[in-house]
Design a protein that fits this description.
It comes from Mesorhizobium japonicum (strain LMG 29417 / CECT 9101 / MAFF 303099) (Mesorhizobium loti (strain MAFF 303099)). 87% of the residues lie in helices and 0% in strands. By secondary structure, it is mainly α.
Length: 124
């Protein structure tokens, strides 16, 4: 139960940072392109890589990993988890599965979003 609490609290922090980042991007560059989301995905992926590498080198508790990686970075951007999964497959030498994962995740998510839009718009 404590581990879940760590993820929930970290996720709330990450989501709050994501919201503030998006609002800042809207004020700076306007709403015509998703600059905030793109920045969040890139920065979150960089931060995840940095954190995981430091954790692997110096060691760290599962609780710290859950709070920071799953919680904060997961709340900030799930793209960081996606990027870490891709990198893990790649570093294991599973190149084809890594690209299959990336392709299926991105295309599958976009198709699922359009299906959700279609379904919601079809409801009376």
């Amino acid at each position: 139960m404590f581990n879940l609490l760590l993820v929930v609290v970290g996720g709330g922090i990450g989501a709050g940072i994501r919201h503030l980042t998006n609002m800042g991007a809207l004020r700076l560059v306007g709403p015509n392109y998703p600059w905030g989301t793109m920045a969040i995905n890139i920065v979150g992926s960089f931060a995840m890589g940095l954190f995981i590498a430091i954790l692997a080198r110096r060691g760290g508790s599962n609780e710290v990993r859950l709070f920071v990686a799953t919680g904060i970075f997961g709340g900030f951007t799930t793209f960081s988890a996606f990027s870490l999964d891709f990198a893990t497959l790649w570093e294991r030498g599973a190149t084809l599965p890594a690209f299959g994962y990336a392709l299926a995740s991105v295309i599958g998510a976009i198709i699922a979003l359009f299906l959700g839009l279609w379904l919601a718009r079809s409801l009376p």
